[in-house]
Fold:
Amino acid sequence: MSRLRDAVLQLYYERYGHAAEWIAFAPGRVNLIGEHTDYNDGFVLPMAIERGIWIAFSRLDTANVAIYFADLNRDASFPIDKIVRSDHSPVEYVKGMAHMLSRDGIVLHGWQGIVQGDIPVGAGLSSSAALEMAAGAAFCALADRPWHPIEMARRGQAVENEWLGLQTGIMDQTISAAGQAGNALLIDCRSMAVSPAPLPPGSLVVILDTSTRRGLVHSAYNERRQQCESGAKHFGVAALRDVSVETFMARAGELDALTRRRCKHVITENQRTLDAFEAMRAGDARRLGALMVESHVSLRDDFEVSTEYLNAIVEAARSHPACFGARMTGAGFGGCGVALIAAEDADDFVAHVEREYHAQTGKTPALYVSSASRGAFYERV
Ligand code: GLA
Structure:
């Protein structure tokens, strides 16, 4: 973490000839369990990862934001008193946050800054949410606003939904904004209550990047949302969160086969997520791992958002004796899996998955061991 912090500060100095006044950070995330439940008012259990987005910045006297995206070698700027949407370039996330903050009456100041990160883009580790939260942190710093994680997460979600037209839920922004070092967070996506859950002692989380990127994710994602909404309508409730596993089992026959599969995933996944939280509180890695495996099967067979690559990497992980459990993570259709393993065998596990996944698919995966990071923050340099 501090290596990239130093690098972005150094870059700022080289580019502008003086030291940056501020630094902001927001992490990416990996979801341990609770997939496609957030937009059903349900439960999720993600953790913030060590990879994230840094912004080194200083206040400007003009009403302008000027950014250099170091990873893309691209400059962008916009006036904060007249923010207009343009294309889908990364600066839209920053503009979107500025728009949502000023809509809420927060007085914005101009700044110049350098954005640099180490979250692979399109891998399902929420680089967009991290950029939204890091930009939000920069604006908050200059507006002298304390960091309110849930308010900021809602603004980030509004950027996705209203500024960019993507119907995503609130999980990614919440965990990036509210993450706690050493803990995953159970998030109740209706009440927005968050409860920390430590990783079981002696276990590690490994992110399993298939090296495939999400395709068609937005149309398939919106389609899943609609299917869930029609399921909720059938049960006469506000969201599938309100249907218990028992009620579903008793009435499943009323639904058409497709809606039944989609509802089954969401309703059982909500229960698995609550069970996983209990397992974490009890330090039970085996139970947590078993729930992760059930989650994967449900996402693969009932929600149908996995891919052959995600299945292959999950199987490769599960075939190692140190693995308590593994599953796909995030929206699906490519991207990453996540595994919970016994910490002492991490090196052997990583080598095994790299070998097995390559043998099965011909692709070279990227594996990252990650501890749970703190959430977004800003500070004076
Ligand atoms: C994406 C969305 C989240 C969530 C997950 C699936 O990451 O941004 O809101 O719906 O997919 O769990």
The mean pLDDT is 97.
